[in-house]
């Protein structure tokens, strides 16, 4: 026995050259010639670690080989090998070598005698081979007198795989267990949502800590492993914004990637060339409603059970579903000179349609964006004449024929509420909205700040108009909400009377000098204030400048 182990760790190419040159059968036709031609280079094979997941990189058409043996003294022992392709299909096989019974150690064999012997063919046999991209596990019984060789080959392109070998099948599993029925059920479909359910993994029921479900949503196809899904996402070249980072595990994320925590759920949303790819980890819940999907779009859903301690995962059988078509939006009639205020719920109603029949050849559309982000699309008799994202106050002057039919479609481009005021009129010389300056920004002068006062400035126009200034004391944690949720169409009537500072009229025919300043006094030291300016036109409809937050000095 000692001679056998001494022989086993001699340079392995001598062993294989003397005993195997006429007996090895390659795992597949495509790799047979390559395997035989590299027979004498067998000593380049690596030892496969026991009880550890190994990542192996494969070059196209170049086989890679690993081997393993059992500990001395174990007659028969179970073992398992799990191979996970992380990209394209691969070919892999397991060969076993057993010395002829009753023979001396192979180092004492006569090479010519063995090479001619018909018994040599029984010394090496292929016990398993596979071609594909599914996760595959082989389980068998090993003898301590056997040497196992694993060969891997990629014929499509360079790729990588993971391999897990274990000879200890009694002390638990590296990979989380799948239920007897690993299918994902689609239990609800809406215009923008899909609800999924799946049976619990035994691993979750036994060890809830460190185990959780992760869902992958994409518009391309299902993935057979989390490794394959992550490879596809990385190869698409997407990058995420530097938002709040909560690392699920190094196995799941690239260094530049992040996950967002919302309602106790970890999620990633990536925009890639083939559509949106979404990863959501929801703990141990086995139902989930995927929100904010596009109507009439087919999505593919994959659920993975992930062991956060080992980074190992197992894939449920993926499914797919098509969201329902968006219902026809309600059409509202636009009338000359009448302002229509449209409010869009980003989650329930994303579209709104308006229709206008021209009684004049020249028509003017005015849009005042109040909240959120909205895209406008205007058609005349079915043909597009304008399409863009709205910002502030926007005018469109269009020329056509009498009785032309104009359709205006408004679409919210974000999940929060959006609103806009719309006006159609043939009389541009009598606008309801005031003439706007080049910029609606409010400027503050840092050098003129004191503990009790702040000086601000804003641009005016060539038309005499009324401007009203308002102030509001706020806290640090209110800044973002005040700036983002401000309704730019609301007038001073929504403000408390105590917030009003002053109203004034001014204009200048020279636009270079159409600027005014105001010093607001009576403030408290070291305090944050929100300043607003409202511009009123001839019709009395206000336009709100962009709010400005300024802190007074602490010490003077």
TrEMBL record:
Domain Fibronectin type-III spans what residues? 176-313, 434-542
Keyword set includes Glycoprotein:
yes
- Any matching Pfam family: NDNF
* Molecular functions (GO terms): heparin binding
Signal peptide positions on this chain: 1-17
Entry GO terms, CC: extracellular region
| Keyword terms | Glycoprotein, Neurogenesis, Repeat, Secreted, Signal
Parts of the chain that traverse the membrane: none
By its UniProt entry, which InterPro entries does this protein fall under? FN3_dom (IPR003961), FN3_sf (IPR036116), Ig-like_fold (IPR013783), NDNF (IPR019326), NDNF_C (IPR045805), NDNF_Fn(III)_1 (IPR055271), NDNF_N (IPR056225)
Q: Where in the cell is it found?
A: Secreted
Gene3D superfamilies (UniProt xref) = Immunoglobulins
Methyltransferase: is it a keyword of this entry? Answer: no
Query: Briefly, what is this protein's role?
Result: Secretory protein that plays a role in various cellular processes. Acts as a chemorepellent acting on gonadotropin-releasing hormone (GnRH) expressing neurons regulating their migration to the hypothalamus. Also promotes neuron migration, growth and survival as well as neurite outgrowth and is involved in the development of the olfactory system. May also act through the regulation of growth factors activity and downstream signaling. Also regulates extracellular matrix assembly and cell adhesiveness.
What's this protein's name? Protein NDNF
Q: Which organism is it from?
A: Cardinalis cardinalis (Northern cardinal)
